[in-house]
Amino acid sequence: MTGQAIQVVIVGGGIVGLATARALAPALGERLTVLEAEARPAEHQTGNNSGVIHSGLYYRPGSAKATTCASGREELYGFCERHEIPHRRCGKLVVATRQRELAALAELERRGRANGLTGLRRLTAEELSEFEPAAAGIAGLHVAETGIVDYRVVAAKLVERLAARGTRLRTGWRLTGVHRDSAGQRLVTTGGELTCRLLVNCAGLQCDRVTRLCGHRPEVRIVPFRGEYHRLIEAQAQRVRALIYPVPDPELPFLGVHVSRHIDGSVEAGPNAVLALARHGYSWARISPRDMVETLTYPGFWRLASTWWRTGVAETWRSLNRAAMARELSRLMPGLQRRDLLPSGAGVRAQAVTADGRLLDDFLIQEEPGAVHVLNAPSPAATASLAIGRVIAKQVLARLA
């Protein structure tokens, strides 16, 4: 057998994997390794999100999302301060544009206060302009705790700090096989072989496949949803101070198309939520037959589709028709037109779907012999990453004791 025998291998060099390594490194140091299939860390969900530091407004009080977002948010702000990472606690505006959204807006306020947010302010239609002069609606909620950052920069700093602890990040090492033997677990990768006592699966879009490689049966399957962004032309971008969000559908774990100023000063609108034709399908042109077969043969997908097909059709139409996207955004920013939107990037969300067709809303971490699997960690996982990492590290160190 080649390679170095180590205590723990983390599969996945996104921000959750790196944050978990950060929490484990003081105890394990050189006995910890992070494997990343891509040439660089943070290439997928981490590097292609909206760059928002979420407040914890949306999540069911007591849920894993609520608790880790609240603590992780403040820990992330502190991490950025200490390491001089550009960020801004800019606040955001949630705008109700229809009468039927007022009950959901009130529920958001209730959840936010239950989750410890002290910077909430309920706004009348006239008060919206105090925070975002370009926004319009019948009521709103200002959330002071929300911020912005570039998560690629955060990930790069985590990599730097891990190297100082002696923890190795092996990029271009895609896991292809896991074999249990007397030495522990033998991991076969495209970069070589190594052994470990415990594997931590933070593989994001590939997490269910990694679980199956380990010989375990995940209770969910990842169904990829692409979120596409548009950049606002400069004249429209100047109208946006920070972040303008709609009131989301409480039945879905998506926040709706919104307008976000980034830390570099650019302003983007999006994302929508369309079924991606590949797990790394950042455009309609990227198609993976394997990924499509896995999605289309999964009973949970068809149960999901039978419930939400109207929503899926509307999201797809906005993806294919920029004028339709502009009309949706003009509910938040009156006057916005098709010509004000320029194509920008896209991200793919690793959304866990249960066999009965539910979009899993909360984080899911599952322990199995020889492994800990993170099977659902979409937004706000980047915000909550440092807290999630501590949760996983506690489980791992208990297993090693």
Strand fraction band?
25-35%
Give the end-to-end Cα distance, rounded to a whole number of Å.
26 Å
CATH topology of the domain at 1-88 and 148-219 and 362-401: FAD/NAD(P)-binding domain
Oligomer: single chain
**Helix fraction by DSSP (H/I, runs of at least 4):** 25-40%
> Main sheet?
9 strands, mixed
Average pLDDT reading? 95
Query: How large is the radius of gyration?
Result: 21 Å
CATH superfamily of the domain at 1-88 and 148-219 and 362-401: FAD/NAD(P)-binding domain
Order of helices and strands: EHEEHEEHEEEHEEEEHEHEEEEHHHEEEH
Total of helices: 10
At CATH level 2, the architecture of the domain at 1-88 and 148-219 and 362-401 is: 3-Layer(bba) Sandwich
Q: Write down the overall geometry.
A: globular
Number of strands: 20
What's the level 1 CATH class of the domain at 1-88 and 148-219 and 362-401? Alpha Beta
Low-confidence stretches: none
Structural class: alpha+beta
Could you explain how this protein is built, in words?
- The protein is α+β, with helices and mostly antiparallel strands.
- It has a domain at 1-88 and 148-219 and 362-401: FAD/NAD(P)-binding domain (3-Layer(bba) Sandwich).
- Helices cover 33% and strands 28% of the residues.
- The chain has helices at 15-28, 64-82, 102-114, 151-165, 207-213, 234-237, 289-296, 299-320, 322-330, 381-400; strands spanning 5-11, 32-36, 52-53, 87-88, 92-96, 120-124, 139-143, 147-149, 168-171, 175-181, 184-189, 192-201, 220-232, 243-246, 258-261, 267-270, 274-275, 341-354, 364-368, 371-376.
- Strands 5, 6, 7, 13, 14, 15, 16, 17 and 18 form a 9-stranded mixed beta sheet that branches. Strands 1, 2, 9, 10, 11, 12, 19 and 20 form an 8-stranded mixed beta sheet that branches.
- Helix 1 runs parallel beside helix 4 (151-165) and helix 2 (64-82) packs across helix 10 (381-400).
- The chain is globular.
- The chain starts with a strand and ends with a helix.
- The mean pLDDT is 95.
